Amino acid sequence: MNRRKADAERTRETILDAAETTFLAQGVSRTTLAHIAQAAGVTRGAIYWHFEDKAALFDALLERVRIPLDEIVDHAVQQLGTTPVECLRDIAQRSLAGICHDLPLQRAATIVLHRCEKLEDDHPRISMITRLSEHAEARVEQLFEQVQQQGQLRADLTPASARRQFHGFLIGTCFDWLQDTHQYSLDADRGSIVETLMRGLLLEKSH
After folding, report:
1. Residue 200 to residue 207: CA distance in whole angstroms
2. What percent of the chain has pLDDT over 70?
3. 183, 171, 184, 176: which is closest to 92 by C-alpha?
């Protein structure tokens, strides 16, 4: 990489760091490119050199971090000798651990869940953090299908509804904890949280 290209990449990362800090401090909607330029110590022209507008900058910020749900799900499924229920427990545990220990992911999730009060337009890229990928959704639903086939899924649930409730419970937990990460240790409690989740989805004899 030549020096000019390296300098441009450093400037781009500086802008993204400033955007993250500013979005966290005052929210996405109330942040302007002028605010970000001031925080980054660059001109608005420098921002426009790298990003078409604030939405494009927001896209790039989310691209930098994402919870690796595809990898988490695939890792759980590939574990030999592991039951579908244990796979699901592992997925939930690893997802919560990611929010606890991956600080860039934690900041990005905080922006998406708590600092996007109302974007000027609907922003499809927000789903990168708050939703499972189609691949992960299909994998998780397949696991719940296997749980159902083994007679362990609650009778009033379908694999699709179980998958939605599984995901919604985890997102709700993250939403609550990210409001104040000092209120309790999510890392210390995640085992019992996941057990509560699974008990709500399985027949009582399958816990």
Report:
1. 9
2. 87
3. 171
Phi/psi of residue 42, each to 5°? -130, 175
Question: b/e map of 5-39 (b: 16 or more CB within 10 Å)?
Answer: eeeeeebbeebbebbbebbbeebbeebebebbbeb
DSSP symbols for 91-153: HHHHHHHHHHH-HHHHHHHHHHHHS-S--SS--GGGHHHHS--HHHHHHHHHHHHHHHHTT-B
**pTM as predicted:** 0.79
136 or 50, greater pLDDT: 50
Q: Could you give the C-alpha distances from 41 to 35, 58, 100, 145, 180, in angstroms and in order?
A: 10, 18, 31, 53, 30
CA gap 23, 69 in Å, rounded: 24
Contact 177, 186 (CB under 8 A): yes
